[in-house]
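Q: Got a minute? One more chain.
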Amino acid sequence: MILNTGNRYIAYFQIVFFLSLLIIFPVISASADNDPAIRSFDGLERVPSTEYSEVYRKPGIDFKVYSRIALNPVDITFRKNWMRRYNSGQKGLSNRVTREDMARMKKKISELFDEIFRDEISKLEGFSLVSEIDSDVLVIQPKIINLDVYAPEINNTLGSLTFVDNAGEGTLY
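A: Always. Here it is, folded:
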């Protein structure tokens, strides 16, 4: 947009300024996209994936030396102050989450995660699932951090259903 000031020098300056912005911004954004290795805070390198939103791995690790996988139980932590934040939005005491509810959710999520993860590992060719640790065993210690459950099943009243678009979110680490 060029201001009508009657001064052709100001109009000329504005045109040059906007043209220079059009040239500079694509160069800056292109140089930011050419970063060869996007790394996480703990030094893991981002790997392109079509199945997951973000996948990271430790650089320099040769996964060809592993033929077996040991899966440790998943460690689950809720989002900071999740219970307090959830309970502050509830009107009645019967809809509030207790520490026992959180422990029950962790147990249920852990069991479900273990079942699904073991099923997915069993589908991998060239890997077998084991419980003992050896030099050719890749030990996986899964963690779910910042778990934010939007509508927890705490009130098991018969005939009561809750429908949500999204169950929640968390980070598999």
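A: Helices lie at 8-33, 82-88, 99-122.
Q: Perfect, thanks.
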